[in-house]
Design brief:
Blueprint lengths: L5 E8 L7 H12 L8 E3 L12 H4 L6 H13 L2 E10 L2 E9 L5 E5 L9 H4 L9 E3 L2 E7 L13 E2 L2 E2 L3 E6 L6 H15 L2 E6 L1 E3 L5 E3 L3 E3 L5 E4 L5 E8 H10 L13
Parallel strand pairs: 1-2, 2-3, 7-10, 10-11
Antiparallel strand pairs: 1-16, 3-4, 4-5, 6-7, 8-9, 11-14, 12-13, 14-15
Helix pairs in contact: 1-3
């Protein structure tokens, strides 16, 4: 399946109700409803149903319960793929799981690899061991979650027979305002080094632990140039990526051919 000429991606930057799934799902449903037929992919922040909480025993749910069903409903209604992470329990463990839900209900997932030890996330959750690549309209898309942004090896684009592993890399986050400068620097860096479009969707507001979030959700092209930025406002923006422009740049500037060879054991 070849890539479609364009893909439309909507970044949802919002405040979240602390540990209140009902309020968050109702709020987001109202925001997202207006995107029906206007986008291909809707990206929500990290732990959008609850906020970035370590109370997994209290807030976790198994797959195909409330959050999964809500995402399937929204994907069907908007006719767009919906993605974001939630606290999921499976096999006696807890995961910060990014869910990727298509309009037909087909669901894939990625479990956050790098757990934020400074908030004791590594003491509560289990890390993901696999990095899937999702396909949407022929575009290959790499999922990442928040702290993953600091570890470029995990997100490195691979190439086989001149074909990249992915065309777009995106990060969902609860990235504190205190470290906004790192967020603003690393998102374009991931685009540049991987010759791919890069997107970061972060929340705003304050959580129940008194942590402030400044948003700065943004989209960058393969040169690291900003296409769209949401600042610190509660808003949704939709960006359109061009397959032709991406391919032209990769042919003109094939830096990937000089990459060091290695693999993660």
């Amino acid at each position: 399946m070849g890539r479609s000429p364009e893909i439309r991606i909507s970044m949802v930057q919002t405040d979240l109700h602390w540990q209140d799934k009902t309020a968050n799902l109702a709020m987001l449903e109202e925001k997202i409803w207006g995107l029906k037929g206007k986008t291909d992919l809707i990206i929500l922040p990290e732990m959008f149903p609850t906020g970035f909480s370590m109370e997994a025993a209290k807030l976790a749910e198994p797959m195909n319960l409330t959050v999964c069903r809500w995402m399937k409903q929204l994907a069907a209604q908007t006719k767009a793929t919906v993605t974001g992470s939630a606290i999921i329990s499976e096999g006696g463990k807890y995961y910060n799981r990014l869910l990727w839900v298509n309009p037909d209900g087909y669901t894939e997932h990625y479990d956050k690899r790098h757990l934020f030890r400074m908030a004791n996330e590594d003491q509560v959750f289990s890390p993901g061991l696999k990095l899937p690549i999702f396909n949407l309209k022929g575009w290959e898309i790499c999922p990442q979650v928040c702290y993953d942004l600091r570890f470029p090896v995990w997100s490195r684009n691979g190439w086989e027979n001149d074909i990249a592993s992915y065309d777009i890399i995106f990060y969902i986050a609860s990235w504190p305002a205190a470290r906004t400068s790192a967020w603003d620097a690393l998102l374009p860096a991931r685009a540049i080094e991987n010759l791919a479009y890069s997107i970061g969707v972060n929340r705003i507001g304050n959580d129940g632990n008194g942590i402030a979030y400044s948003g700065h959700s943004a989209a960058y092209d393969f040169r690291g140039e900003k296409i769209s930025g949401l600042g610190e406002k509660d808003q949704i923006q939709t960006v359109t990526f061009s397959a032709e422009k991406l391919q032209e740049f990769r042919i003109k500037f094939p830096a990937w051919k000089d990459a060091d060879e290695f693999r993660i054991l």
